[in-house]
Structure formats: C-alpha cells, structure tokens
Amino acid sequence: MGVDEGGGAFRALVVEDEVDLAQVVVSYLDRAGFAVEHVVDGLGAVERARASDPHVVVLDLGLPSLDGIEVCRRLRMFSDAYVVMLTARSDEVDTLVGLGVGADDYVTKPFSPRELTARVQAMMRRPRTAQHTGPRNVIVIGDLEINLDAREVRAAGGLVPLTRTEFDVLEALARHRGVVLTRHQLIEMVWGAGWVGDAHLIDTHVGHLRRKLGDDAAVGKYIRTARGVGYRMGEG
User: Fold this and answer.
1) What is the pLDDT of residues 212-236, one digit of tens each?
2) Which tens digit of pLDDT belongs to each residue from 166-206?
3) Which phi and psi angles does 138 have, rounded to 5°?
4) Residue 166 in contact with residue 180, Cβ under 8 Å?
5) Which of 9, 55, 104, 182 could anchor a disulfide with 230, C-beta 3.0 to 4.6 Å?
C-alpha cells in the first residue's frame, strides 16, 4: 500500500493548522507508506499542491488565509487529487457545501487517525482505468455518453465536469443498468470493501451528479431513487 502505478510512493498533502493533530495524521500516513507533506494554511496548500501534484489531500475546513471550501474550489481547477475534508462542525450544511465543491469524503472531528488512513488507502486502491468489454468503451444511455477510457461524460452533447468519485458512482450505476444498487453495494464498488463511514455519503454524490447532469430527482431521467433501498440508472 502507498505505492502508485509507477512504483513510487503515493503523495499525500495534509492541510491542517492544528499542529499536534497534523503530526498524528502525518505519522499514520507515513507509516502506511505515503510520501507526506504538511502545510498549515489555505494559500500554502494551493501553492504546495501545484508544486507537488499530490494523489490525495487531507484538508481541514477551518484554515487561515483560505478556508477548506475555497482551497477545494481552487484545487479542482488544476488537480484531480482525492480530497478528504476534515471538519469540526457536524452540521450537515458544511458537509454538503464541502462535498459540493469537489471533496470525495469527509471526516468529522474528533476522528480516529487509523480510520482516516484506512479511508485514504481505500481510495488509492480504486482503479484509475476502466475495465470493460465493449469495443468503443462508451456506455450510451439515451443522450448520456460515458466514455470509460477518457473518463468523460457528455449529456445532450455537452461535456459534464465530474470529480473522480462522481464519475465512479455514475459508472457503477451505468454498468448495472436496470439493477437497483443499495448504498452499501455502491460504497463497495466505489470505495472498496474496507471502507468505513456513513453510507449516506452516496446520497450526497448522487445529488451532485443530478445537479451537474440537469436531472430532476422526481423524474429520474438518469438516476432513479429506489426509496429505502438505493439507486438505479434511468433510461436517459
């Protein structure tokens, strides 16, 4: 664990102004085999991410100079690194806003550094290239096209910018068209069987997918809700 496809260590950037907490997180990730850097403020995080191109960013929500939400917005302009948001505020609004700008996961303080490390490791195990059998490597559902090789999505001909996690959730649903997938099944497909946390995280990513695809939840053109169970792909 902690090794990328080229044989080098996965790069992690920890952005946390609570130095004692940051040292613990850095220590756990270091022991897991990551090459870890630490910065204490938002502007420094953006600059360091540009320079080091991390695979994953552990990002505190409350930071000096720029808060975590603004840092995440700026990261998404040039980086597709996984982002795990740390927040001391448990209210749902902060969590949803943070994920809305491109975070892949969130952890509420206080948290277990071991659990955080396990989540990061699970992200690194997710394949970056698609496994498929179709000759064109494109799934077409109505006016929705999912290019598995390019990891691009088009709806009604227009390119839809998705985060890595949003793409992976959509791909999982599309590969099982006509089948209702539970939240736990989607978690295992996207994050892996070793992931720990709140399975309702899927609801947040589905909500952002619908917004980006222009899909009304009441209609379910692309993604339909099976109440009390999970989600399945629509007809497009």
Assistant:
1) 999 988 888 999 999 889 999 998 7
2) 999 999 999 998 899 999 999 888 887 777 777 788 998 99
3) -130, 130
4) no
5) 182
Tokens matching residue 188: 């295992």
Q: Encoding tokens for residue 143? A: 């006016």
Residue 206 near residue 172 (C-beta atoms within 8 A): no
